[in-house]
Amino acid sequence: MIELKALRKVFGAVVANADVSLKIERGSIHAIIGENGAGKSTAMKMLYGIYPPDSGEIFVEGRLCHWRSPRDAIAAGIGMVHQHFMLAAPYSVFENIVLGVEPLWPAQRQAMREKIKALSAQYGLAVDLDAKIEDLPVGIQQRVEILKLLYQNARILIFDEPTAVLTPQEARNLFANLKKLKSEGKTCILITHKLKEVMEASDQVTIFRAGAVVGEVKTSETSVDELASLMVGRKVSLRAERGAFEAKNVAGGGSKETGPVLRVKNLSLKSSLRDLSFEIAPGEIVGIAGIEGNGQSELLQVLLHPKEYHKKMSGEVSWLGVPSLSGSKTLSNSEIRALGVGCVPEDRHQEAVLLKRPALESFLLGFQRRSRFKKSVFIDSSRLAQAAAEAFESFDIRPRDPALEMSKFSGGNQQKLVIAREFEFSPRALIAAHPTRGVDVGAIEFIHAQILKARAKGLGVLLVSSELDEILALSDRVLVIYEGRIVGEFKHEEFSTGQVTEMDLGRCMTGVAK
Amino acid sequence: MSENLDTILQIAGSTLRLATPLLFAALGGLISERAGVVNIALEGLMLVGAFVAAAVAYATHSPVAGAGAAMLAGGLFASFYALFVVKLRADQIVAGTAINMLAAGVTPFLCKIFFQSTSSSAALPMDSRFVSAPLYGAWIFVIAVAFGLGFTPWGAWVRFAGEHPEALDSAGVRVNRVRWMAVILSGFLAGLGGATLSIFLSSSFSRNMTSGRGFMALAALIFGKWRPWPTAFACLLFGLADAFQIRLQGVVLWGSDPVPVQFIQILPYFVTILVLAGVMGGSRAPKALGQPFLKH
């Protein structure tokens, strides 16, 4: 059993954990939930020895513990599966597992391999010991991480947002593994903010808000709605209310466009995209549903950067009536953006923000050449600062400090900034790729509302997401993509009336049915 | 016919000889870079090794003592480098350049003190020079480094330190200690490489005698994709270019005059650029290369 007593941790002026006390039963799956910045990770990092607590006590199996580093925690049987795996990509599974205590001679090596194989059989974690990490899918890599912890004799396993990187199938696999671990007497701690997973996998839930524990419930006695309210401290609707965002209800609503916002005709890209054709009308949200890796990323790249791909692709694309790809003629990304195409990219950290720079610079990113923020050849910093301040206010980006380094903002606030930036120049079309990935519950609601508002204003929206719930809640039309082909098309009404169920979609997404 | 064969054998022999300093230095750089520390200081470490070897061999009449002293001097300079880049987390390129400039200044200064000349040391008699030992030694080191990196715990730690230092740290191994060791070892090897320049390939130290060989070694290990055997092969390639260059000096290729020597001397550097720019695509550096490791 683990007991945290009155843990407190302060970083500079920020109280990450004010007074955290909680108990975790041995042999249970215990979910720790809370919004980004609620302090759940900080508490778990203290349990794992990454940070020493400022005050308070940690008891593991009745013993008071003072960790000097994670090594002490590991020695005491606590292991952590980090969000970014502690695995070196070019080396083998075996090398990664035995790291730190390498075999010295062949017999020893053989014995170690046997031990790992026995563990992998016992816990149903099949993996090829000689495979290189980089050749394995993420789900299997995570399995290697778990195996590594078990090999180090971990009895308590902390999972930090374990499904953030997994496909739905892999996530299901993980939950099966968690149950197996539990049945073998291990304790699993699950840090997450995906409430459906909490309901599916855990026995007990502790809810964090603003650095403190605000609730502790048995999973069997709660619901997603109750958990969401506890987490956010107010009632939240997880199903975006489309009704409130019909054109007539939103200021400046109503479509001014006539032709399609995006027209794609017979688009193919080598082996990843095959003969895609679809259109998006003004004031329409078209959702692309599918399991990740079925061509979604390629589609986004091709739509936004036709110039870089045009030798490998065929077909026609036009944005807002202007051909961006037809024959050998292509537009560059900046030309497409200048037409009025806003974009919330797939990989926020790589493509949307400058993590190590002040948020203000991310706010300007991509629009630095627009005359509005320019004074001859220089950036008009006062006007920029003013625009940023307004955007921080109207998009509720916290903290309200555009000079703060981007990485200091939570995922949700980073994403809000990206959306605020894209809306700054009143786009007429929007690409939203995984708009709520790595974003906390409160911000999800806000972001969904923004997308629906854009729709009401007459923007055509292309929504790509691996969260089926999100697709279903927002889209007017859903296209299902499988192996680079559109294999199904459904209208919003078909879901809302129950003609088509999630199961039907799931079958479509796995290529079982049309 | 036999004249041609002679030429080929001569070039092969001088290729092996000229590749020797590169081999030592490149192996040293390889160890350091695999551990995650860019070692642009190879040039300076070699230069220090070259001077110390010449001075000690001159004084003791023992090439072995000269080489040993060069190794230690290289290690000493490298630990100075490690202090800055590993412990104090300075920028590796800037600190490396500083070491190179320091070496370029210190060696002529010491040369002046010991030999009353800033341009070169006194010529070494035959008994103070190596005849062929470094030729074999270099290849023994290739084998040792390949084996050490691939099959020993220490080698695994070096590789993880360069690829995923956090993973190594969480496994209970001190990343920065591994990096210190790797950098010092690379100093030993670069020092030895420098020694082969002054007491094996020639018979004295002369100012700036490395003339870019440290950088060439760096190029070789990048061309060799940070792996020992391909790196050794790359060193041979550069050695070959060097051998050709020497062979072609004063040779009349066309017309009545020989090609100006300055043009011919470009050859090894030209090959380096070609190799790095053209053939190199697809090679992959250790992931944490150049990034100081800071614990939480």
Explain what this protein looks like in three dimensions:
The complex is a heterodimer of chains A (about 525) and B (about 300). The longest helix of chain A has 17 residues, at about 105-120. Chain A has a six-stranded mixed beta sheet, sandwiched between helices. Chain A has a six-stranded mixed beta sheet with strand order 17-20-21-13-22-23. A five-stranded antiparallel beta sheet of chain A has the order 12-11-14-15-16. The model of chain A has no long low-confidence stretch (mean pLDDT about 85). Helix content of chain A is about 35%, strand content about 25%. Chain A has two domains: about 1-230, P-loop containing nucleotide triphosphate hydrolases (Rossmann fold), CATH 3.40.50.300; about 245-355 and about 420-510, Rossmann fold. Chain A is an alpha/beta fold and about 525 residues long. Chain B has about 300 residues and is mainly α. Chain B has one domain (about 1-280): ABC transporter involved in vitamin B12 uptake, BtuC (Orthogonal Bundle). In chain B, about 70% of the residues lie in helices and about 0% in strands. Chain B has twelve helices and no strands. The model of chain B has no long low-confidence stretch (mean pLDDT about 90).
